[in-house]
Q: What sequence folds into this?
């Protein structure tokens, strides 16, 4: 018999830098989860990742105060900022372009994000990532 689920918590935490401070502590503490156990497990699992990578996490909390968590691929916006070499996206993406990405970079990001996107193939994933790039004020160089 499966355990009864009490809560599902979505967080974005920087790899190797989980700590009991907000947002992790308050989110888990209100459900009675052992915060330090989560912090240790998360930091162990992200130990081989590059410094500063943002990792979305889906934490499932059970009635007996145990938990498990699934790590997702980094957000497309994070990967696009890294590819374009910019600190943040544009406040007015239709007017101000803040950087450029190539079609090849978009395809590579789409391949990385494919398991977490609502897309059946790479072509559909590319369209999703292109939309994110345009909304960030990035210019897409084709060819």
A:
């Amino acid at each position: 018999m499966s355990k009864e689920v009490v809560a599902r918590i979505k967080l974005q935490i920087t790899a190797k830098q989980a700590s009991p401070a907000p947002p992790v502590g308050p989110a888990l503490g209100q459900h009675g989860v052992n915060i330090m156990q989560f912090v240790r497990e998360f930091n162990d699992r992200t130990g081989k990742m590059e410094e500063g990578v943002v990792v979305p996490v889906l934490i499932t909390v059970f009635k007996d105060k145990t938990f498990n968590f699934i790590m997702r691929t980094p957000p497309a916006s994070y990967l696009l900022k890294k590819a374009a070499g910019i600190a943040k996206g544009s406040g007015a993406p239709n007017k101000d372009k803040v950087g450029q990405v190539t079609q090849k970079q978009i395809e590579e990001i789409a391949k990385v994000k494919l398991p977490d996107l609502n897309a059946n193939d790479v072509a559909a994933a590319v369209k999703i990532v292109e939309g994110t790039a345009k909304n960030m004020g990035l210019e897409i160089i084709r060819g």
User: Anything to note?
Assistant: The chain has a mean pLDDT of 90. Residues 76-141 form a domain with the Arc Repressor Mutant, subunit A fold (CATH 1.10.10.250).
